[in-house]
## 1
Amino acid sequence: SGDNVGGGRSGAISPPPIEDSVQKIDVNPPRGTRDFPPEDMRLRNWLFNHFREVSRSFGFEEVDFPVLESEALFIRKAGEEIRDQLYCFEDRGNRRVALRPELTPSLARLVIQKGKSVSLPLKWFAVGQCWRYERMTRGRRREHYQWNMDIIGVPEVMAEAELISSIVTFFKRVGITASDVGFKVSSRKVLQEVLRCYSIPENLFGKVCVIIDKMEKIPIDEITKELKSLGMSEEAIKDLLQVLSIKSLTKLEEILGAAGEAVADLKQLFSLAEKFGYSEWIQFDASVVRGLAYYTGIVFEGFDREGKLRAICGGGRYDRLLSTFGGDDVPACGFGFGDAVIIELLKEKGLLPELSLQVENIVCALDHYLQGAAAAVATRLREKGQSVDLVLESKPLKWVFKRAARTNAQRLILVGNSEWQRGMVSVKILSSGEQYEIKLDELE
Ligand SMILES: Nc1ccc(Br)nc1
């Protein structure tokens, strides 16, 4: 029946010699990346389930994109860190590609690709791994998972208010309160209106934002130097930094007047926050600009009030992104929420959940020849929706009890000869120790 290939049983051919010398491989994951062994994967699933349940409760649909994208999707000339750390390379087809550093450009690409086949507004969410290539000198991670929610096709500030509401909903679900975290909210239109007063060219807007976003990270004279290199005068820089220090919307209105879009948008957002019931979570802070060049309006970031951690999440309006990719001028806003800072915050607050392995049944044959019977018992329970850890080899009972304890099994089902002859199995409820025999067809 056909040639024996690869040393089948009949006409056995000895397997080829192992040519490659066995060399010990590095069993750690690549620098800056993580494995998720079961206990870490349980926490990750717990977190992502909350992300997904909140998104769905807001009527959003899940989407995803390739981790690998054309490098062109992320080439922006605004001096962003995300560009400097792009994990990019040339593939075997000589194409310039990159591991995505964020999800928003992929989302914009898919919206454009879908074109008229989708009706606006779109409410999409994604949970995806994002990458950066950072010199390991700083020993930081090179990958993280980001939860994104985006609303495409709604120009009103109601969209940003809805997004912030979804994040507040997530925080409440995991036990975080407005005493633990807040949102700093501003609008890039504040910056825009100041720059216009000094006739700073629009094309410098993105670059100025990226520089301003470094305010808390590099010395102020470095900020001033970089702004000067863009051609801003000392007076313009002084006024700009003065406006950016404003923490009150009333004060902002005094400076910019009530007629501008910046003040109108922000007043509308704070009014909607009242209606959504999360006023205590948000505060105006003109210094918030976020580090992505494409934001055009409201921007916000979640922060821990103790000031120990980096930003928990961030987002805003990006009304021009789709058109810069050649798509129609479609308004859009969204946020990114990383999987690292939130876990640090939950640890700080003692809110990490206890997540142990749980299995409902462990099934074990008491003799080797009853393995088939044990398989039948396991299958029957599984068909009834029960989880079963089937002991796959002959093991001493002591071993089985130890495994049942480690897996927090609720029931131990033993398949023994005398019981099986009578169509029975023996059940032990591990929490109470109660033990009884039961007919197989009554087991559930
Ligand atoms: N954009 C980005 C990607 C990966 C990590 Br870790 N941090 C930021």
Note: Residues 38-57 form the longest helix (20 residues).
## 2
Amino acid sequence: MQKYTFPKDFIWGVATAAYQIEGAHNVDGKGENIWDRFTSIPGNIYKNHNGNVACNHYNLYEKDIEIMEELGIKNYRLSISWARIFPKGYGEINQKGLDYYKRLINTLISKGIKPAVTLYHWDLPQHLQDMGGWANRKVIDYFVEYAELMFKEFGDVVPIWITHNEPWVVSILGHAWGVHAPGIKDYKTALQVAHNILLSHGKVVKLYRSMNLKGKIGITLNLSSTHPLTDDEKDVRAAEVYDGFLNRWFLDAVLKGTYPEDMVKLYREQNILPEYTDEDMSIISEKIDFLGINYYTRSVLKYDENAYPLKASLVDLENPKTDMGWEIYPQGLYELLTNIHHNYGGVDILITENGAAFNDIVNYKGKVVDDYRIDYLYRHLREAHRAISEGVNLRGYYLWSFLDNFEWAEGYAKRFGIVFVDYKTQQRIVKESAYWYSNVIKNNSLCE
Ligand SMILES: CO[C@H](O)c1c[n+]2c([nH]1)[C@H](O)[C@@H](O)[C@H](O)[C@H]2CO
């Protein structure tokens, strides 16, 4: 039987995010955030679901951490809800919110589970949105103030920090396509938001360095290997442009301190280029300790004369898909990892999200036999191992997600968890994929 062993100190973890699991949306002094507001508007979310209760992790975190401990999970990526700490986004601190995260993080550490904290996973305090949100450069300063408090409170016990989760999703889905909070549909605003988020990232990295903290800090980008539908030069160009739009705009800014020239030219021609300075770019590219990558699927592109602003459209192929409709394409992870390794100086990489939604059911024995998810995870970890064997500095993998949770615009209709959540009873059922992953962690290897 073929065995694929990972490096000795490889980080095996699971991931979640505050708004998707905590619930307690207006409890203990938490301020309103943009997802509380966005989900309260009928029509925005599948069946008007919201995160008001979610997995009730705010109250059940000890039970959830016990499950992690039983599974031998030693690393947990979580996010902090900014509005629980600063209800208005700045100024007055909500001590009960701070105390919750102290309890949560101390419980993890007491169980030997290392936290990796995402400072921003999409849940901007609504008060800041009311002043323009990320399109307003002032919000950058408030993010730095929030980060500084988090570093002061938890900097000595949290070894891994992620400034932002997926600036592309925040900017494009939230400010160009309008399908995420705050529901704006304007590309110029979206690209200015992306820039301001990247600038806030760089400022927080500089702050972290100035505080002489001993952990590692990075940013998480959602990346996807891009493929032309055909070898027609128009399709090839469409894939290149989409690669610039999704991947290179962010990778080049963070790791090279420049925006890619082809995209600057395109955005300038479309009059959607953000305002920025050379100093901004220098700050944005402050050296990071790792690049976080969220990978789920590849992107196949075709030329489309009518597609604004890229003249490129995603193609939906008739290939095996997850419940999200995303093609299952494990080799795309290998392509991405090797491309980044070769094009961006061998930066250390953490896969901060990879996983799959499937239509899980609880069988007559009360079990969730999610073999499809095990197959997805196996195939992607196999590609990760291939990349490592070819020299890629891949240091860890956080599975998305520990719990079934609120899947943004899809509400609770999509289950990504390795632990099933019955939202009516809040009962947890450990899925077969969790036991499988527990073995991978224990053996630090994949077995065919
Ligand atoms: C194209 O997928 C994105 O990279 C992506 C997928 N996902 C994400 N980003 C977010 O970081 C999570 O909050 C989602 O729950 C998760 C599953 O949808």
Note: Residues 17, 20, 165-166, 169, 222, 294, 296, 353, 400, 407, 416 surround GI1 (CB under 6 Å).
